[in-house]
Amino acid sequence: MSIYRVAEVATAGGSLEIAERELREPGPGHARITVEACGVCHSDSGFIEGAFPGLSFPLVAGHEIAGRVDALGEGVAERGFQVGDRVGVGWFGGSCGRCKPCRQGDFIVCENLKVPGWAYDGGFAESVIAPGDALARIPDALSAPDAGPLGCAGVTTYNGLRRSKAVPGDLVAVLGIGGLGHLGVQYAAAMGFETVAIARGADKADFAKQLGAHHYIDSTGGTPVADALQALGGADVVLATVGSSAAITSTVDGLARRGELVAIGAAGEPMGISPLQLLLQGKVVRGHPSGTSQDVEDTMNFSVLHGIRPITEVVPLAEADQAYRRMLAGAARFRMVLTAG
């Protein structure tokens, strides 16, 4: 009997502990992947802490997976995959293909979306079995620790920008330069936007410029964020990557006419926005989900083309709990990544 290791949580809110599982063969439409790296995302806390509905424990989280195909179930080869292929699996861990969004081709908002760690065991493991439609090809130029975080953090920021109203030359602000935002600034600059980074503290200005920002706004400075954005002409798009509704709200009056606020940072409290703030100048506020496996491939290819990489701290699977706690504490710079070593 072949076995593999996982970092599982036995009960909601518990510690991540190493356990062994029996290696299974993939069923029809699925592939088995030898995991080489898996990013630790803040969304994993929703699974580990038991915040999402329909969870069962023990639970293996992890939805920023990078590895190699080591076995194929029936029908997956027809998708063009073979044993040995380098693949990633992100937040989009498969779709049902039957619901109305799927039938309309909008797979990322599938009513039965299969998120690793929620619908099936995730990537905090040495092996994972995933649906064939979740597989994204990893370019040779990307290492596994760099590819993993692009399956969620990368595709969410990249897609949030490319699906926005912004065109090259527009003023685009990225709120926050942490785990999501440090990628968002890089993508915005590479897409040809006049890029504004917004973060807390004057000491982050040099780092923001290194990422490619043309302007930096210290949200703790004497000038309100909205006023600072208006002094630059008003933001055509704000990509809000932070998990603070108050911080997101502070950017709305900094939008240009018909400007767009794209929220990708998860926060539970309401935003303090009045309809009047939106009506008179035709402003738009919308949320943006992650992206399909094709979007993940697009993100990785764009990253290779422009030399964009996540900034990571790489630790072995055995230190999964420490890595998760470091992420929760906001101490990671900027994405924690687990490897099978």
Describe the structure.
It is a single chain. With 341 residues, the protein is α/β, with parallel strands linked by helices. It is built from ten helices and 15 strands. Helix 4 links the parallel strand 8 and strand 9. The longest helix has 19 residues. It is globular. It starts with a strand and ends with a strand. The mean pLDDT is 97.
The residue ranges in which pLDDT falls below 50 over 5 or more consecutive positions are none
The arrangement of helices and strands along the chain is EEEHEEHEEHEHEHEHEHEHEHEHE
Number of strands: 15
Shape: globular
Structural class: alpha/beta
What is the helical fraction, as a range of percent?
10-25%
Span between N and C termini?
21 Å
The helix tally amounts to 10
- Rg from C-alpha positions? 20 Å
Describe the sheet with the most strands: 7 strands, mixed
Strand content: 25-35%
Summarize model confidence as the mean pLDDT: 97
Q: What is this entry, summarized?
A:
This protein is of the alpha/beta class and about 350 residues long. It contains ten helices and 15 strands.
Give the topology, please.
Blueprint: E1 3-9, E2 16-22, E3 30-40, H1 44-48, E4 65-72, E5 86-89, H2 100-103, E6 127-131, E7 136-137, H3 144-162, E8 171-175, H4 181-190, E9 194-199, H5 205-211, E10 215-218, H6 225-231, E11 235-240, H7 245-249, E12 255-263, H8 275-279, E13 284-287, H9 293-306, E14 312-316, H10 320-328, E15 335-339
Parallel strand pairs: 8-9, 8-11, 9-10, 11-12, 12-13, 14-15
Antiparallel strand pairs: 1-2, 3-4, 3-6, 3-15, 4-5, 5-7
Helix pairs in contact: 3-4, 3-9
